[in-house]
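hey m, so remember when u said the tokens were messed up on ur end? i reran from scratch. heres the input so u can diff it against urs
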Amino acid sequence: MRWIVISDLHGDLDALEWALDEAGDVDLALFAGDLTDFGDAVEARRMLAPFFERELALVAVSGNCDRDGVRGVLESAGVSIEGRSSAVRGFRFVGSGGGLRHHGMTPHELTEDELEACILAALNSADEAEGRRAEGAGLVVLSHTPPNGTTLDRRGPAHVGSHSLRMVLGERRPALWVSGHIHEARSLSRLGASLLVNPGSLREGCYAIAEFEDSGEPRVELRTKALRRSHG
């Protein structure tokens, strides 16, 4: 099983077409937000078209730069997992969109309480669908805002991620946690049983490929036009 992992497209259709072509055969696309750069529903549909033209399964959340109309398009297309869960190819996905409230200058910023409510709603949906507590090897979390105190949320010397999401990371120990938002925090790391991925900004030519061994363990490779780095 092979996935393309992308985030922070910010309306660059050429970058998306390049990444999908360069990635080759993939079974699924994970998108961690900022489909547009303050765009509208029309732009959102244009950004989604390459996925649908390739008949590529997509799981997505919105970013802090995605307006209400963009989020509506993601929901109507059936690809949004914000506050909900979805079962795709044997994995249970849960999602949380938007950015942690900082300066209020982007259209989709949330307080810690709102982020917590969103991810808990997604986890409750997963638990009900699975008939048990969703955690561990079969769980994948997709969030625009990264969990605090990890490699995913470093901005210079500071950690700027969500404490609520970090709590979920510690309690649920997903196989894979993907987030975006902090472009300079592009990284691969492991925290306990969880592999943490910020693929970087696709507008800046960065994405990742995730492959799963027969054991179910993910192996992820960070890609740019000039450099590849992997982590298993």
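this time it looks ok to me. Residues 2-231 form a domain with the Purple Acid Phosphatase; chain A, domain 2 fold (CATH 3.60.21.10). if urs says something different then somethings off w ur setup not the seq
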